[in-house]
UniProtKB/TrEMBL annotation:
Biological source species: Hibiscus trionum
Boundaries of every HAT C-terminal dimerisation domain copy: 114-183
Domain of life from the UniProt record: Eukaryota
Pfam families, per the entry: Dimer_Tnp_hAT (PF05699)
UniProt-recorded Gene Ontology molecular function terms: protein dimerization activity
PANTHER family: GENERAL TRANSCRIPTION FACTOR 2-RELATED ZINC FINGER PROTEIN (PTHR11697), ZINC FINGER, MYM DOMAIN CONTAINING 1 (PTHR11697:SF230)
Name of the molecule in the record: HAT C-terminal dimerisation domain-containing protein
């Protein structure tokens, strides 16, 4: 593995860029695989859903709230949950977040939390949920709204098989909804689906 990597077919690497076989497999191939996965995710999931997940990461409590960002959390509330908060509540949310940030980084209990669920439990046990009620409201709303997206990520590896590799995005999205919401799908009558299909315009 420590031998120099000579490259496969095509133009060989220059001597100044000589690398080991280990480096080739650990870095070159790994980076290509990650790029491929990222490209696949970018074309399969809508920009709004990706932005929702990225902004939600601002609530991550790991590493002493290193990723905690008041600006991103306020943007999350304003863009995705504007109907859940009044304009005054959104202003109060920013103030609550500023106080929470100072307290979270100094509190041992809050720094030990690893998930949003644990954060809510600590706030409830320490009776601080009433102080940070808007933050708790946002967190609980977030858990409900991201559940379908998280389930879609989990279901993707089961639904997107080799035989379904060339499935178009619109059909894949519809298929995932039916797969994830099985309880709702079971309530649908086959006869009603046939009737609806019959009423559609001819292709």
């Amino acid at each position: 593995m420590n031998a120099p990597y000579k490259g496969g077919r095509g133009r060989p690497r220059l001597q100044r860029d000589a690398i080991s076989v280990r480096h080739h497999y650990h870095v070159d191939i790994f980076v290509s695989a990650i790029d491929s996965q990222m490209h696949g995710m970018n074309i399969r999931f809508k920009d709004d859903m990706m932005e929702l997940l990225e902004l939600s990461f601002a609530l991550d409590s790991r590493d002493g709230y290193k990723s905690f960002s008041i600006a991103d959390i306020c943007k999350l509330a304003n863009k995705f949950y504007s109907k859940d908060f009044t304009e005054q509540e959104r202003l109060h949310l920013k103030v609550q977040l500023e106080h929470f940030e100072l307290e979270a980084r100094g509190s041992l209990e809050l720094r030990k939390t690893l998930t949003i669920l644990e954060l809510c439990q600590v706030l409830a046990n320490t009776r601080k949920s009433s102080i940070y009620h808007l933050l708790v409201h946002l967190v609980l709303t977030l858990l409900v709204s991201t559940a379908t997206t998280e389930r879609a990520f989990s279901a993707m590896k089961l639904v997107k098989t080799h035989l379904r590799n060339k499935m178009k995005d619109e059909f894949l999205s519809s298929y995932l909804i039916i797969y994830i919401e099985k309880e709702i799908a079971r309530c649908l009558s086959v006869d009603s689906l046939i009737d609806d299909f019959d009423l559609m315009k001819e292709r």
